[in-house]
Specification:
By secondary structure, this protein is mostly beta strands. It is built from three helices and 37 strands. The radius of gyration is 27 Å and the shape is globular.
Length: 539
């Protein structure tokens, strides 16, 4: 029979044992349940969590670090004396604290925009700071014509990490908030019909990037793939229709039903497409027109055509050839390139311009999206026509970044010599086209230019070469450039031709150029608007 004294002794023993129990390092706990720091913080280890979701409450499944840290990846910082309200930085970038573990650990993510290589994770409290070195990897991605595959490269684009033989990648997009790459690829193309897929590649696996999922895309030709970090959606624009995917679970995009094109759109005339940063509006560029056709896609299963808006006023010739949507943090814009085309060249040369307008998505189903405040900026190049372009918000060196603000921006343009536009009427597979191309290539040592405009529209020539840059991209920090260059090689005896393609990597600080990779483009595909290859950098 237990006396009162025995009961009290037993209770004391239980409480003592409970008080000595170690905190569960995998149990999520409220911040206010943690102890104040008794001294300076000390980091014991940093664990990368890959693409896994760490819950706000409960207990997360234990995992070990694979040592590969990359943008958007979850991470747990272990140690002592972190207190209740620490701050965390990764490579000098502030990192948001997503939660805390019972042992005081900090749950966070690797922020965007960090420099790859060895850098420090720092925890700071009112008692002091502590740092721990980690190695961060960032990536680029390329698809060279004729390879029927795409590759994940190192951040400079010079070293291949993984290759995926999944088809001809027409679009490559890195998620800005999670460690994934999305690729829209074509397969088994016959005439204008293709079997298309959306490939999701996980970048945070221990050995090297690997495929996480495959989803079907609308058939036909892939026109564009757009990602919105605001709505967390991917929008695939194909000749077979428009389809939106939710990326709330980034490793497994979920597709809505395929939407048919409005009857007012001639599918064969679709030239380019772009998705607004908020994911609500698709802008279509059609052959032979100087207008952008808007489609409201904010309800993924019920898209609404809004009709065309003229971007190039008082111009009889059709000069628009590419469009791109972006945001400066306060407004969204639609930018279009205009310049000579095969049709316009019949009546003479035309200036090359950049058309910029504000794009206003519809607030609800009672209104339609609009294009406002159209302006035109000269690209200041004679006898060169724009092909593609890329926007970055950082200069190529520290001097250009001095006084940097969100209003600072740099447009990079790929330009092709206008005399190559004759290939729109006689392509390289014909003797006439081959002969004319040979005359142009022998007459001009430079047929491809990369030019740049800064925020004050001051022009700067970056590089010049032969051939044409079909796709370009610039590292987000403005330090280097990647471009897919294709160059026709023509036999003067019988006018037979081959088109050799490769990747050009340029260090924009030093001007040093590196060429690597080999591919081939069919002669009949080397035609205006010279759309070939794909390149992308991780944010």
């Amino acid at each position: 029979m237990m006396t009162r004294k025995h009961v009290l002794f037993t209770f004391a023993v239980i409480m003592a044992v409970a008080g000595c129990a170690k905190p569960n390092p995998w149990k999520i706990t409220p911040t206010m349940d943690l102890d104040d720091p008794s001294g300076s913080p000390s980091i014991s280890k940093v664990i990368d969590g890959g693409s896994r979701h760490i819950p706000w409450t409960g207990i997360t499944k234990p995992f070990t670090s694979d040592g590969v840290f990359t943008t958007g990846e979850s991470m747990i910082v272990r140690g002592t004396n972190f207190g209740r309200l620490p701050t965390v930085s990764v490579c000098d970038k502030p990192a948001e604290i997503k939660g805390r573990t019972q042992d005081g650990g900090i749950i966070t993510r690797i922020p965007v925009g960090i420099t790859p290589g060895n850098c420090e994770v720092v925890v700071a409290t009112e008692k002091g700071t502590s740092g721990k070195k980690i190695k961060v990897s960032r990536y680029s991605a390329i698809s060279i014509p004729g390879e029927n595959s795409f590759a994940v490269m190192d951040y400079n684009g010079n070293q291949e990490i993984s290759r995926f033989s999944e088809g001809d990648a027409k679009a490559l997009i890195f998620s800005p908030s999670s460690p994934f790459l999305y690729a829209a690829v074509e397969n088994n193309c016959k005439a204008e019909k293709c079997t298309n897929n959306l490939i999701t590649v996980e970048l945070s696996t221990g050995s090297k990037p690997s495929i996480k999922s495959r989803e079907k895309l609308p058939g036909g030709k892939i026109i564009s793939l757009g990602y919105s970090k605001i709505s967390k959606t991917l929008t695939a624009v194909c000749t077979g229709g428009i389809q939106i995917f939710s990326t709330k679970i980034p490793e497994s995009p979920v597709g809505y039903s395929v939407q048919k094109w409005p009857e007012s759109i001639v599918i064969a005339d679709i030239l380019k497409a772009s998705v607004s940063p908020d994911g609500k509006t698709v802008a279509i560029l059609q052959k032979g027109k100087n207008s952008a056709f808007l489609i409201d896609v904010q309800v993924p299963d019920f898209i609404r055509p809004a009709g065309p808006t003229v971007l190039l006023q008082n111009e009889k010739a059709a000069l628009l050839k590419n469009i791109f949507s972006y945001s400066d943090g306060s407004s969204s814009y639609l930018t279009a390139l205009s310049g000579d085309t095969s049709a316009s060249l019949v009546v003479g040369y035309h200036p090359s311009d950049m058309i910029t307008a504000q794009i206003k998505s519809a607030k609800n189903s009672t209104v339609k999206p609009e294009i406002l405040n159209i302006t035109k900026t000269s690209l200041m190049t004679e006898k060169y026509t724009p092909v593609s372009f890329k926007l970055v918000f950082h200069g190529m060196n520290s001097a250009e970044d001095a006084g940097h603000s969100k209003w600072k921006r740099y447009f990079y343009f790929s330009m092709a010599h206008s005399e190559l536009l004759v290939l729109g009427r006689f392509n390289l597979s014909t003797p006439t086209g081959a002969q004319k191309a040979m005359e142009v290539m022998s007459k001009y040592k430079e047929t491809a230019l990369i030019n740049r405009l800064d925020e004050k529209n001051n022009p700067k020539k970056i590089t010049a070469t032969t051939g044409v840059y079909g796709a370009i991209s610039v590292r987000p920090d403005g330090k280097s450039f990647l471009g897919i260059n294709c160059l026709p090689i023509i036999n003067p005896k019988d006018f037979s031709s081959t088109v050799k393609c490769s990747v050009h990597s340029i260090d924009l600080r030093t001007g040093k150029k590196t060429e690597f990779g080999k591919g081939t483009l069919k002669p009949e595909q080397f035609i205006p608007p010279f759309t070939f290859g794909t390149v992308a950098f991780q944010d």
